[in-house]
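The methods section describes the discrete structure representation at length, but only in general terms. What matters is that the chain and its backbone geometry are given together, residue for residue. For illustration, here is how one protein appears when written out as sequence plus structure tokens:
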Amino acid sequence: MAVALTLARMKATLLRHSLRGRQQPMTLTGLTIGLLLAGGTLHLAATGDLELLAAVYALWMLGWALGPVAMGGGDETLKPEHFALLGLKPHRQATGLLAAAFVGLAPLVSLTALLGLLVSGIRQDLAGALAAVPAIILQLALFVLLSKVAVGLLRLALRSRIGAVAAGVINGAVLAALCQIWVFLALFDQHGIPRFVAYLPSSWGLRSIRGDYLALAGLALLDLLLLAVWAGLLAKPAVAPPTSGRPRRPITATTAQGAIVARELRTWSRDLARNYQIVFALCFGICFGATPLLLGWPGMLPYAGPIFILMAAGMTVNLYGADGTALWLTITNPDGGDVRGRQRAWLAAVGPAATVVTLAGTAIAGGPWPLMLVLLPALLGAAAGLVPLLAVYGLVPGIDPHKRGANPLRLSDDNSGLTGLTYLTLALVAAAAAPAALLALRYGWAAVPVGLVSGLLCYWGLGLLAAQRLAARAPELLHAMRTGRKPPAQAAPRLPALPARAQNAEWVGFALAAVPLFPQGVVAAFFVADGAERHTWFLATYLRQDLRWPTVIGMIVLGLVMFGAAWHRKRRSAAMAASPVIANSPPA
């Protein structure tokens, strides 16, 4: 008991300090979204639709089980290896870490959603209300323990290349299914909620408030079983993934750039993190395009390849940060063509699979061939140019590969920085290929050369800018990776110097701008191009034919204007905070 209380207090202290600074806006955004979802769950419980409520709790359980896995290892505030020298027995260590796991914003949000059990119990009768109290506790423990066991199993799997590939396949498929949730909602609307949902562990709390007390006992036994499994996983030493032990073929190249290409291709084939990234992106693209086949609609299949390219660019954008302090090798050979070599290797790793998936999906769906033949080179060139450019301009300090320990997917301690860089990459790659795609929609086959020229220009021009930036600022980048911060002379005015209200307002502005730009603009354009009608919440598909494309274009323009306004506000606020007159003025 003392160990559990001590670890819970440690977690609370660390959480209190982590809510300050640059982590605060993203944390508050996630908390707001979580509380909105929890409020929707409570509203559903108040309406009395227990069948639908069981399906919603199944989604909460799925989020707890697979969410931390998809994020690359979940919460690592308190790691088991931190307490390796204390000599704690596995069951005591597991119990203490479990108590600490209940301290956090995610358990708080889930607890709010699980209060729907109490609401349903009160609507039932007094016995149902009394049974809801232990059901809430046991259900929350089930969510947390499922998360811990899933992360523990992931770490075991990631000690081999097969495990990394399997994790990429599973996580890519799950994320694609969540992004295409409208397909499953449509299936439920047609066929109803599957009967097996009522028998999942996520529904046992609901069954207990209706008088099935064996379900309550089953929850308790399942929690104890998961706790025992987690204790066994904690007992396994946290070691780095072993190497294959096979002799490595020497790199043979006649030029410095050829050596860089060979080195990068070897890294793509051997690094478990890159194995995971490329398989995750490929599986996400294929599953995203194939999921609407459940409704008999093949219209998304041609876009599986372009979506794979976008996701691969977003996953691999932190090229130099992922290499860690190995940048000093590049500094010693500044004329070795490092950027061009990485561009060629990236195209060799992504291009063939993207081409096969795009052509196969287009052939199965029967078109649209001009648009796909334009998008493929335009997106590949834009991604190959923007990935190294953003890697040197927006570098996020990473963990050296030999220091990743038992979790090779944890590439950086700055998860918010990586997330922001990923979203920026997705937006810029899509925007770079958008003009060629619009010409293809307008002029058909005549726009195919435009896609080729667009891709080549992005590859050459953006790569040139990246090479110039790397040559001019390589020492500063190395300093950032070694220390985790920019040199004082190069540091820009920091957003945390602003008042908390201003920071949150700017983050809300960026979040709201994404709604018209991506779902109502870019994604809706795909549906409108395929002639889809009345698709879930995409506004343009509900309008007349002559109003659809103007609505899509208007949404994209509105999103870009909102992004620009939020960015202008951010720069102006940063300039005001950096001004000595304003910074030193007394508070009002």
Summary: The chain has 22 helices and no strands. Residues 489-498, 580-588 have pLDDT under 50 and may be disordered. Residues 256-484 form one domain.
